# Entry
Amino acid sequence: MTALTPIRTKAETALMAQYEALRRDLPKSEASSAAREAAIAAFAASGLPHRRIEAYHYTDLRNLLRDAAPLAHRPSEKAGHSVEAGRFLGDIRAHEIIFVNGRLMDAGKLASRLPKGVSITVKPDTAPMILDPNDAVVALNTALSQENVSIEIGNGVTLERPLHLAFVQDAGSPQAVFARVSVRVGDAARATLIESHEGPNSIATQSNVGVEIAAADRARVEHVRVNAEGDKAFSLSTLGLSLGHDTSVYSLNVILGAAISRHQILARFAGENAKLRLNGVGMLDGERHADVTLVVDHAVPSGESRELFKTAVDERSSGVF
# Structure
């Protein structure tokens, strides 16, 4: 029987080559290496998702992503200090956790600035806890993210101010950024998380960011995500949510930027009597395209989920939910 050799697109070939070039500089722990190798093997087998895959029917990445931009260089600490993030927050006072080109800034000093009961650790293992490892976008994120930033909010902790996870692209030419963040909200803890994505206009940046939020029993979590990337940006993002017993999670996705964006949400009810509210709003013009894809797994009984997504489109733009 003749084996079939997949014909890879220019972008798929470049992504595979990027991993090979990056491999020697990646963390060498056994767990992280195994996860990355499994992820790149999964991507090699599937390639970029196309319209014949139902979840990607309206956002054909194989057709839309013509080439893969070079990986962004690690920013200097000086660059991190000069970044202004969250320009749209107004008077909201938040604890800033800033990522420049996918890398956490001021990791050593950050711990002392966070509120009591909150810890942050940079780990080499990017294996997903909640996200689907077989999804091609997640697989690429697992393989090419150079660190996993783990944030722990302790049991019973109530945050008086939001945690602001600010993802900023510092780019003068096309570049690609991969980042992974895992957040655990402890038993009966209460927290508000703001996640923002920003980048320059007129530069064809690319991004693939995975965020996982595991909310333990009786936790209360509010999560607001704002995409304010540049007008030429190609933005891929994945949110994983896990809800424990009697847990409440509210997540709002706001789309203000990017030429092409696809945000996928995987929510799993791990405990009974949990409540999930997922909302979204998009404002699109020109030829911009924004896709929000949602999968909710009611793995246990007595859970409640509600969804409301609205998109305002102008000119030749398109929105998908």
